Amino acid sequence: MEREMIIVLDFGGQYNQLIARRVRECNVYAEVWPYTKSLDEIKAANPKGIIFTGGPNSVYEEASPHYEKGIFEIGVPIFGICYGSQLMAYTLGGEVKTAPVSEYGHTDIVTDGHSRLFHSVSQKTSVWMSHTDYIAKAPEGFTVTAHSKDCPVAAMENPEKKFYATQFHPEVMHTEEGQQMLRNFVLDICGCRGDWRMDSFVQTKIEEIRAQVGDGKVLLALSGGVDSSVAAVLLSKAVGKQLTCVFVDQGLLRKNEGDEVEAVFGPKGAYDLNFVRVNAAERFYEKLKGVEEPERKRKIIGEEFIRVFEEEAKKIGTVDFLAQGTIYPDVIESGLGKSAVIKSHHNVGGLPDYVDFKEIIEPLRMLFKDEVRRAGLELGLPEKLVFRQPFPGPGLGVRIVGEVTAEKVRIVQDADYIFREEVRKAGITRPNQYFAALSNMRSVGVMGDFRTYDYAIVLRAVNTSDFMTAECTNIPFELLQKVMNRIINEVKGVNRVMFDLTSKPPGTIELE
Ligand code: XMP
Fold first, then answer.
1. Helix 477-490 and helix 406-425: axis angle, to 10°?
2. How far apart are CA 178 and CA 162, in angstroms?
3. 185 and 243 in one domain?
4. Tens digit of pLDDT for each residue in 276-285?
5. 26, 252, 396, 409: which one has the fewest Cβ atoms less than 10 Å from its Cβ?
6. Which protein residues touch ligand 1 with a CB less than 6 Å away?
7. Range of the domain at 426
C-alpha cells in the first residue's frame, strides 16, 4: 500500500515543524518542504494534501514568498494557515490588507456550524491569532466560515475544490480545538487512512539511508544520548559495518556513563557496527584550565571535540557520509532563520568543516524528542537508554560554574549519582530532567570538630514539555534532605547542598 503523505509547505513560519508533528499525531506522515520546491516535485510526491504555513511577510509585497497558481490546479486539498491563508486568498483573486486592528494571542471565533473543517468543534472556540494583515475579501467561490471580533475572515473555504484557510494557528496548543481541525482536514477532507506509525518512519528511513549511502562509509559521533544512539541504531540497521561510531569520552560524562555506552554499542553490545571509544579527558581538562566564561567553555569543548573526532576520522580515512543525531529542537535553539541564538549547541554546525566527507546525513532532523524516543523503541533500544533524561553535548562542562577541573568533575559526578539514585528509588517520575551541578561557591562549614571551606552542590529538577520553558519540580522535602545528607557524607569537598527553584525563563535548565 502506498504511503500517504501531507506536504507542509514552509513560507517561513515559526510553527512549521509543529504543523507536521500535529499531522503525524493523526497517524499520517508529513514532511516540511521549503516553498522553493517546484510544482513538479510536489506532484511527483503525490501528496494527499498540502498545508501552507504561516510566515512573517505581507503577500502584497513583491519580495514575499509566493507559489505558482498551478498548485491550485493539481486537484489536491490545500489548507492555508495564517500567511498561508492570505497567500491562498491573494493568489486566487481575493483581497489582503493591513488589518485595522492586529490580533495577537487568544481570540474567540464563531464558526458557521457547517464547515467540515470545524466538524466536532464548538461553535464558539478559542484560537491563537498572530497577524497584522488580514483577508479583507475572500476570493470568488469561497465562503467565510468563521469570524472574530476584529477579523471578518477568520476562516474561509471552497469545499468543492477542497481549499480551506484559517487566519489563526490550529497547530499551537493555545488553539483549544486546533488538533480536531487538523484531524478533520487530514482524515476527512484529504481522506487519509491514518495508518502511519513510527515503525513506518523507521522502515522508510532505513531504506532511504541505504539508497543514499550505497556502499559508502558513514561516520557518526556517538555521545550515548538518546538522539545519537537512535541515529546509530538506525544507521547500523541500514548499513551495518559501513558505519563507524566514534564515542569521545571527554571526561565530562556522568558517573559510569562511558562504560555504559560501551556496553551497549561496543564489541560486547547488540549491534553490528564499528565502535571506537576515545578517552580524552586529560586533553579537555588541559584546554579548560583557567577558563570561567560559560560560552568560552562551550566553544572550547566543542572545538576540542571536533579535533579529537577529526583525528579519529583521519585514522579511518576518507568517509563518504558524516551522520549526526540532530533533532528539530536543536535546529531552532541554534538559530534557524529569525530565532535568536540562545546557546551554541555543539551538536549542530561546526563539524562539517573539519572532516573530509562528501555528504551529511541527519535522519532525525525533523523529529521532536518524544518522536525520537518512539523511533528508539521501535528500533529495540533498551528503555533505560530511550528514556534517559537529556544530557547536553558539553556534558558536565555546563554543570560546573566557573573553571572545570578533574576534581570538580569528580565531585559533581558523585553528587549527581546520589541524587539520581535516590529519586529513582523513591519512584518519582515527574521531573523531566534532574541533576546535580556544582556552584563555584565555597563557604565555611563545620564537620565534626573541624572548620571546612568547601563547595556548594546545587540540585536542580525541572518539568518541561518542550525544554524551551521549564518549571522547578516539587521534590518531597524528606527526599531532598536524604540526598543532602548522603552528598555531604559521601562526597568529599562538599559542605553545602542547595535546591534551585528557578524556572526557565528567567533561568535556563542547565547551570553554567
Ligand atoms: P537550557 O540549559 O538551554 O537547556 O535551558 C535546554 C535543554 O537543552 C539541553 N542542552 C543541550 N543539549 N547540547 C545539547 O545537546 C547542548 O549544548 C546543550 N545545552 C543545553 C539541556 O540539558 C536541556 O535539556
1. 140
2. 18
3. no
4. 999 999 999 9
5. 26
6. 343, 345-347, 390, 392-394, 398, 433, 467, 504, 508-510
7. 405-500
